[in-house]
Amino acid sequence: MDEIQSAGGFLICVESRLADQWRGIDGLSVTPDASMAGVTTDYDRASRIPNQFVCVLRLRHGAALILGERPLITGVWKNSLNQAIIWRISYAEEDDDIPSLLGSLTEQSFEAPLESIEFSFDSPNVVIFDSAWPGDEAQSESVSFDIAPGRYQVTTHVVQPTPMTELLLHRFYPVT
Questions:
Q1: Would you say the C-alpha torsion 47, 51, 55, 61 has a positive or negative sign?
Q2: pTM of the complete model
Q3: In angstroms, rounded to a whole number, what is the distance separating the alpha carbons of residues 168 and 73?
Q4: Distance (Å, rounded) from C-alpha 108 to C-alpha 140?
Q5: What pLDDT, on the 0 to 100 scale, is given for residue 144?
Q6: For residue 146, what are the β-bridge partners?
């Protein structure tokens, strides 16, 4: 199972075709505007997001999701409906089987999201990497997944599949 953890900052989730726009700590991918006073890198931009679990940041051509909160071990799982779910471990036992725990969740686990935003994908290949890295250098230390192009409701949930396991989940639900 592929997973990633940042070195301390946020993770970025972006279409693979757009990843090379992200400059991480090496610079800015967009022209600064008045709201970006003091921001000199894309990593600075990610660090300034509001206290949210998921936030959208624009790129020169497109947008990316920033996975906020704290640096957690992160991976992607697809449920029986082929919906992508980004899982992040708040705490777990070392031998926990995360896919089995995710598979045991019922739809009730997703009834009361902590947050909900809309986001669109124009291409199917998505990559998650440390926001400090420039996107053209991050491919070796990333997690990738496929998702059908389209518009999605991205909901965030905290679940406890066992008393010793807590997961932060971001589910991508197609909007028709």
A1: negative
A2: 0.93
A3: 10
A4: 36
A5: 94
A6: 125
Question: Do the Cβ atoms of 131 and 24 come closer than 8 Å?
Answer: yes
Are 87 and 176 a contacting pair, CB within 8 Å?
no
Token pair listed for 148: 């059908």
Query: Could you read off the pLDDT of 31-70 as tens digits, one per residue?
Result: 888 888 888 999 999 988 777 899 999 999 999 999 987 7
Q: Mean pLDDT of all residues in the chain?
A: 91
Q: Does residue 23 contact residue 29 with C-beta atoms inside 8 Å?
A: yes
- End-to-end Cα spacing for the chain: 31
In the block, tokens 């624009």 appear at: 58
